[in-house]
Amino acid sequence: MEGLTDPLMRQILTQIATDLGRPYDWSVSEFIRVTQHVLPAHVFYKYVPELLTASKTASNTPIHVQLLGSDAQLMAENAAYAAELGAPAIDINFGCPAKTVNSHRGGSVLLDEPEVMYEIIHAVRRAVPDDIPVSAKIRLGYTDTSRMDDIRGAIEASGADWLTIHARTKTQGYKPPAYWDKILAFNSLPIPVIANGEIWQHSHAAQCMAQAGTQHLMLGRGAVTRPDLVARIDTPDIDDTRTLSWQALVPHQIAFLQGEAKNDTVLIGRYKQWLGMLSKGYPEAQTIWNDIKREKNKAAIIAALQNTLRAHGSLTMA
Q: What does the entry list as the binding residues for FMN (predicted)?
């Protein structure tokens, strides 16, 4: 999720999951665009600073390097270099629906060119050591699902180690519902299939796994909206000791505001984006959003968050 699950957000979300006793099996970086050359090390470190710490967050969650591009040779060369730098796995993005990405022949637009998908995955698989997995993320199609069989065939022939499927086409974007049952057609592949899309609570996860015929899930926007979602999914009858109250989440929000960014304006903008998403999972987020939506001073926003703690009379992890 470009511009959202950056290193700072990964650090916070993986720490919360670990503290709740259900760490993520791994997380994937924002996609790194591959266009004209092999990217220098500092670009990889910018997007994936975890490469400098054994490719893990502070909570010990592995971070896979995600690449996006359309030139098979360049993708292979960049994947090989990422592996040299310590990437534990390479993920290839064929799912991004952004117009600017698609107009430059990247992301989901390549779902209309399964032969190119095959060439990219196959080249990357050949370029990196055998012990480093290569995965792909797709949607069900670009404008429609008419090429699903061709896409499945390209994935099967490519040598991918697993496949993640967002259960909508590019045209469907993020509009509900997600068509989890369409994922079932990919289960003939001899590799694990990971389902994604519209998973906001435990019941959604259960329905998705049943309809898609897989026990593997990827969480995206739901994990940002409700940072304890992974623990809630893992335990159907979860008790309050393994969920995250607003009071417990506030210190993490303050840590986010105190994190690294180009400048405070950028950091505050990113925080407000997160707060807007949190309002779908926490009513308190809507209240504080009304208080700080026009605020441009970071210290004032932190003070407003601290005031919510005093109002609730608690600073403990619930």
A: 66, 137, 196-198, 220-221
Domain boundaries, the chain: 7-239, 245-312
Which architecture does CATH list for 245-312?
Answer: Up-down Bundle (1.20)
11 labelled binding-site residue:
no
**pLDDT in the model for residue 234:** 85
Say which residues have a Cβ less than 8 Å from residue 182's Cβ, sequence separation at least 6: 140, 145, 148, 167
Which residues are annotated as catalytic? 96
Q: Any known ligand binding at 198?
A: yes
Q: Is 197 annotated as belonging to a binding site? A: yes
Residue 57 confidence (pLDDT) above 50: yes
The predicted model gives 46-72 an average pLDDT of 98
Protein fold of 7-239: TIM Barrel (3.20.20)
pTM over 0.90: yes
